[in-house]
Design brief:
alpha+beta; Helix Hairpins; 7-stranded mixed beta sheet; 4 helices; 27 strands; 19% helix
């Protein structure tokens, strides 16, 4: 079975980047001959996963692929100057070799010059002998010419002596540096892979080959840039791609996917879940044990983790395409790839939750008009004054509302003060806990500023899960009464503030529990 003498280039033409790996597609045109032939293609990345290797011929040529495999071999690194990743010893050895080569070239030129000067002196002595034999007498000129040739030969001989000494010193230092490199470092061999393809053809002609495989050491994460200009928000979606596969991706079709191929092959394990019942004791029947706890409102997507998070796709595989060809170097650095951009009108408010933070922030809300789902990721916030900070964008379906905070305003201040009183009332000896929350809101405006600014205050009330505990808002004691209270117990006020204005908001609510309740 004949084999191609030289490897055929197999460039990367398309890449599907997954959460922690990449599906690489390669294409090449093969000039086939009748019969069975083994074709060697590459080189390719040695990190290619063998069991994912797939090759097929896309043309109508009467041929078929009999076998495909990856063959790896260690090869010495290519000759060339040391790079930025090489050590200082290797760079010093390279500099000494270059300098010694320059000195040797200078020595060769000096030797050639001395040889020419020797020929010139011989011709001059022959001329003097011939002139003296014929009766010519040009003593002053002959003395002058001989002195000039001897002076030139002495000067070049001195330069040659210095060049020999410098060459010997460079050779000694280079030998010492090479011994240090051999003792401290080892010349790493490079692992290269080639594709060996066995093809059977019934007729001669070109055939287009497509080959694909998975490769680790490649990943992507979404990133965004939000620009607020008046009442218009421009949101740019980008993909940050890292890859260290050993080969560059040059002008490839890039596809971003949230598929997790590694998890699909591992089914969940089924374990027993036993429920045991027991009778309550007399003390447990007489009392109801409750406690106050903080519970975060659940949202779509996996919980946050420390470090580089995974791609939150809302539980459904999402696929995004780069609009143009992309080049990503195999340097392990972050490469930003633009995906989409849209501009839309947005509504904004100045909001504050004093229990969490005393800062008043500008919150912007708008609809997702990108045409695709916005995956969870960091977002750079830009306003008229420039870059203002970085926030987080949660998973947002197409057409759903997006909420972003564009930083705090230092000209606002909110002070929160809480008072609590406990009392027992009624024949049933109910415990009543009264809490009073006072919010003092101030606006510090520079001279000449005009116009009111509405600040949205939010304060939460406890939500009871048992009938023995009741929560009641005392509207008659609130000043002013909240504009709205939602089912999660969040009270809201829209407070207008003129320049330099001050307002005080008071919230009063009661927690009432029967005598059986403990832990309140």
């Amino acid at each position: 079975m004949p084999t191609e003498p030289r490897p055929i280039a197999l460039p990367v033409t398309a890449v599907t980047c997954l959460e922690d790996r990449a599906l690489v597609e390669r294409t090449a045109v093969l000039d086939l001959e009748p019969g069975v032939r083994r074709v060697r293609l590459g080189p390719v990345s040695a990190l290619a996963v063998d069991r994912t290797l797939h090759a097929e011929l896309l043309s109508d040529h009467p041929a078929s692929v009999l076998d495909v495999r990856i063959v790896r071999a260690w090869t010495p690194p290519a000759a060339g100057p040391p790079g930025a990743e090489d050590s200082a010893l290797r760079r010093r050895a390279h500099d000494l070799e270059e300098e010694r080569r320059a000195v040797e070239q200078h020595r060769d030129r000096l030797r050639s010059r001395l040889d020419l000067l020797g020929l010139l002196a011989a011709d001059l002595l022959r001329e003097i002998g011939e002139g003296a034999g014929s009766g010519e007498s040009e003593g002053p000129r002959w003395h002058r010419e001989l002195d000039r040739v001897d002076a030139e030969r002495d000067a070049r001989a001195e330069e040659l002596r210095l060049a020999d000494a410098r060459s010997a010193a460079l050779t000694a230092e280079l030998d010492e540096v090479r011994r240090a490199v051999e003792a401290a470092e080892e010349e790493p061999a490079e692992l290269l892979g080639h594709i060996e393809l066995t093809v059977e053809a019934t007729a001669a002609g070109p055939a287009r080959l497509q080959l694909s495989h998975l490769t680790p050491c490649a990943l992507w994460r979404p990133a965004y840039r939000a620009v607020l200009n008046g009442d218009t928000v421009t949101l740019e979606t980008e993909a940050v791609v890292w890859q260290r596969t050993g080969e560059d991706w040059s002008d490839v079709r890039l596809t971003l996917s949230t598929a997790r191929s590694a998890l699909a092959s591992d089914p969940p394990r089924l374990v027993e879940d036993r429920l045991r019942l027991k009778d309550r004791s007399a003390a447990e029947r007489r009392t109801i044990d409750v406690e106050l706890r903080e519970e975060e409102i659940s949202t779509v997507g996996p919980p946050s983790v420390l470090g580089l998070p995974g791609v939150d796709d809302g539980g459904e595989t999402r696929v995004l395409h780069a609009p143009a060809a992309v080049s990503v170097s195999s340097d392990g650095r972050a490469h930003r790839v633009p995906l989409s951009s849209f501009a839309t009108r947005a509504s904004s408010e100045y909001a504050c939750a004093p229990e969490l933070s005393p800062l008043v922030t500008r919150t912007v809300r708008f609809d997702n008009r990108s045409g695709h789902a916005l995956l969870a990721g960091p977002v750079d916030l830009v306003r008229d004054s420039g870059f203002t900070g970085r926030g987080t964008l949660d998973f947002t379906a197409p057409g759903a509302a997006v909420e972003l905070s564009f930083g705090s305003h230092d000209d606002h201040r909110v002070v929160r003060h809480v008072e609590e009183s406990r009392d027992t009332a009624g024949i049933a000896q109910r415990t009543v806990v009264t809490r009073t929350v006072r919010l003092r809101l101030s606006r510090f405006s520079p001279p000449g500023e005009e116009g009111e600014r509405v600040v949205v205050l939010r304060e939460r009330l406890p939500v009871s899960e048992v009938a023995a505990v009741e929560v009641r808002l005392r509207k008659e004691a609130c000043s002013p009464v909240p504009d709205a209270v939602d089912e999660e117990g969040i009270a809201r006020w829209d407070v207008p503030l003129p320049p330099g204005g001050h307002r005080t908001v008071t919230l009063v609510y009661e927690l009432s529990a029967t005598s059986k309740v403990t832990g309140l």
